[in-house]
Amino acid sequence: MSAIRVGVIGAAGRMGREVVKAVESVDDLELVAALRRTDRLESLTRAGVQVAVELTHPDAVMDHLEFCVRNGIHGVVGTTGWTDERLNTLRGWLAASPRTGMLVGPLSVGAVLTMRLARYAARWFESVEVVEMHHPDKADAPSGAAVRTARLIAEARREAGRAAQPDATTAALAGARGADVEGVPVHAVRARGLVAHQEVIFGGTGETLTIRHDSMDRVCFTPGFLLGVRRVGSVPGLTLGLESFMDLD
Amino acid sequence: MSAIRVGVIGAAGRMGREVVKAVESVDDLELVAALRRTDRLESLTRAGVQVAVELTHPDAVMDHLEFCVRNGIHGVVGTTGWTDERLNTLRGWLAASPRTGMLVGPLSVGAVLTMRLARYAARWFESVEVVEMHHPDKADAPSGAAVRTARLIAEARREAGRAAQPDATTAALAGARGADVEGVPVHAVRARGLVAHQEVIFGGTGETLTIRHDSMDRVCFTPGFLLGVRRVGSVPGLTLGLESFMDLD
Amino acid sequence: MSAIRVGVIGAAGRMGREVVKAVESVDDLELVAALRRTDRLESLTRAGVQVAVELTHPDAVMDHLEFCVRNGIHGVVGTTGWTDERLNTLRGWLAASPRTGMLVGPLSVGAVLTMRLARYAARWFESVEVVEMHHPDKADAPSGAAVRTARLIAEARREAGRAAQPDATTAALAGARGADVEGVPVHAVRARGLVAHQEVIFGGTGETLTIRHDSMDRVCFTPGFLLGVRRVGSVPGLTLGLESFMDLD
Amino acid sequence: MSAIRVGVIGAAGRMGREVVKAVESVDDLELVAALRRTDRLESLTRAGVQVAVELTHPDAVMDHLEFCVRNGIHGVVGTTGWTDERLNTLRGWLAASPRTGMLVGPLSVGAVLTMRLARYAARWFESVEVVEMHHPDKADAPSGAAVRTARLIAEARREAGRAAQPDATTAALAGARGADVEGVPVHAVRARGLVAHQEVIFGGTGETLTIRHDSMDRVCFTPGFLLGVRRVGSVPGLTLGLESFMDLD
């Protein structure tokens, strides 16, 4: 079997360099294009790229993905800042190119497992809260991953017919009880020295179960990128999150 | 549907009192016998007990279960101290009473989920260690639950074809790297003030995933007992752990 | 040396029973009065109580303490609900009885040490946040101990000339960043199964330092009560918190 | 006041580059020599270095320090691998150069505070254990910092007249209860994804107090190096650890 031909858009950034190194270190993938900021997208088609890894920033990502979809190049997208509107635009492009696959979103194995395990445990506990912790240069609070985790938990609770969480708080300082995400309190801690951490705390009579994910280094995303690159070509359309590629069931 | 007729053996102990209270608080179970140390087992048959909850101690449990099996009374067993030999003896009795069911072992929802989630995550990570923490009056180290968790993880790693864990230790104080349970290091902390806690730490490139279970109070076992009592009658033979009753898949 | 004559007000409550047991278990203290709800305060003077332990509730505590101060009985007060106004009232009574001592406030060794260590570390780190976790029947959020800890930290930062904490958050859900206590974010988690827990997270370049206190059982307060009873008689006036009795310096 | 003239030995390594950058970023220090592997030590004297930062490896460090002491250059030493024998050799050199100061050992503010807080809390708790967690490429277990922490705790317990720790373990797998460092159990976890972490768990009746230090990045050492460089010149002789420079009392 011949190697998959991979192009990296944003190859000079910190994450880009990691992905380039990872692609070059395995036999079943071949790096045929590494685009920096000033490089033209046409290099992708000229080099015969089959799967592009997108690692630039929210301002540029849509143009890059439109080019890829139009040319039948599959994509694995690490750039964040997705809104429902943007996802729908991408879905529209993909509808016109029915054999092309795009993978967007959480690409760390640990992040995906955290969400999965949290959803799995959700119906068994009376209480649940999410505490995420990040470096103080982060602009959004809570993190997108924490909000997504809370929503998955809320959905699992609804499906299990769980009542609202017990909470006798009658006197609170504003903000003390966190942000309310569909009934799940989410707390965001910001401190120098932290990288990216998330804790889901489940509580039942006499016991708690805590699932914690610590991302200490962006290299934690590379195994997820490799898995995505290997699989995205056989899954047409838009895929959100690595989860469906992980054979978790 | 008529209520299940329940008997509690060891009803005067701390756990027994909790189970008695829990059985009495629900409509689909009826407490028809509550045996203390000096009570005779015949009270169980006389009262028409369908499911017995066994909460005494390792020295007495086998006699009690033999009586139950011989009389077709299903059992939910909270008493610990099980060896492979004892389990085989129990299996022998059950073979002669093919409609009787016995549930033995971890009966806390949190403990069961911890094992389940740990097994689930095991194949995705290069490294894994278990740290369990208990009060200093505990006689065994590591705890039975920690050993069982480590074995489930080891099994999942073998099935996934995982290599041995990386460990460059060349100079170690005796004991520093914990006990080796099928290739999974297990550490046992004992300190006043602790109750029963277990942490499974998975590590991959740039990230860790930690699953932690804290049992703060023995009442955490009562939901598991109730679930066991409701289900054991329809599952003949020996069942180890609450897991198969939890519809986790 | 003769034993200190101790009276317990609120001896029939859960905390009261623990204190009674603890006082009776040591040689240098003698339990001479154990008042229940309907007992009259005069029993204290009649029994020659030197130190009273007050364990009732906010509605009753002020009357009890006024009686004690008026009769020169020293007090160790476990009842919560203190406001600045109430403390001032108590100070007024004590001014008129200059030999009497009263100890109010955090009486767990671990809680006191957490505050002390937190204050000690405060000036060395750029960032700090407090996360407290309690059972869901608690009425106030954050806990009084968490607010007090945050204030001590804020004071230590001001004394060290520390700038405001770094926080680039520009898009936040309401409440995500916690309650602001003098510039220190405080988050309150409420979940079934939790007892009383507090975590102080300090962050500096490339590292974090976390101080965590877990109270698993109210018996954790008894060593603090005993220490208070032994010392309060030699410290006239109002003392807030066990700290000054612990010879921490 | 003129800037302190600083030389870095091992300036091309990862830690060296961080220190070079840090020295250049402040006004009161001046980088006058940055030695790489092949550079001669004479560059230090020629450049008029007042304080040398040593960041090479155990095989080379002793020669470098002998040169420095002989030439009256103060030293801040980040290289590890110190034995009592080596420390004594260094003390001997310093005895012959009574105005020269050398700082060796833990140079992270967080690591120093962890030890300090642990020693401070030690006498208040019946139980204490240390759990350190590192990446799996580490050769020694437990870490030097964990052993040093355990010794400080053991010393504080002895001074306070604390009895041996309670431990009812009668049946243990080899290694489960950790390494024994003067009566304090120390456990070493090794997993991919971890960096350098240490947890000290104190336990008393009904409560635990945990002090945890997470070093996520070697840049955490630079504030300690800067503090050491500024102070070492006024503290002749050998100083172990940053602690005495931190004005902690």
Automatic annotation (TrEMBL), chains A, B, C, D:
GO terms for cellular component: cytosol. Its EC number is 1.17.1.8. InterPro entries: DapB_C, DapB_N, DapB_N_CS, DHDPR_bac, NAD(P)-bd_dom_sf. The active site is at H134, K138. Residues 110-242 form the Dihydrodipicolinate reductase C-terminal domain. Keywords: Amino-acid biosynthesis, Cytoplasm, Diaminopimelate biosynthesis, Lysine biosynthesis, NAD, NADP, Oxidoreductase. It is found in: Cytoplasm. NADP(+) binds at R37. It catalyses: (S)-2,3,4,5-tetrahydrodipicolinate + NAD(+) + H2O = (2S,4S)-4-hydroxy-2,3,4,5-tetrahydrodipicolinate + NADH + H(+); (S)-2,3,4,5-tetrahydrodipicolinate + NADP(+) + H2O = (2S,4S)-4-hydroxy-2,3,4,5-tetrahydrodipicolinate + NADPH + H(+). PROSITE patterns: DAPB. Residues 4-92 form the Dihydrodipicolinate reductase N-terminal domain. (S)-2,3,4,5-tetrahydrodipicolinate binds at H135. Pathway: Amino-acid biosynthesis; L-lysine biosynthesis via DAP pathway; (S)-tetrahydrodipicolinate from L-aspartate: step 4/4. One of its GO terms (biological process) is diaminopimelate biosynthetic process. Gene3D superfamilies: Dihydrodipicolinate Reductase, domain 2, NAD(P)-binding Rossmann-like Domain. GO terms for molecular function: 4-hydroxy-tetrahydrodipicolinate reductase; NAD binding; NADP binding; oxidoreductase activity, acting on CH or CH2 groups, NAD or NADP as acceptor. Catalyzes the conversion of 4-hydroxy-tetrahydrodipicolinate (HTPA) to tetrahydrodipicolinate. Belongs to the DapB family. NCBIfam families: dapB. PANTHER family: 4-HYDROXY-TETRAHYDRODIPICOLINATE REDUCTASE 1, CHLOROPLASTIC-RELATED, DIHYDRODIPICOLINATE REDUCTASE. Homotetramer. This is 4-hydroxy-tetrahydrodipicolinate reductase.
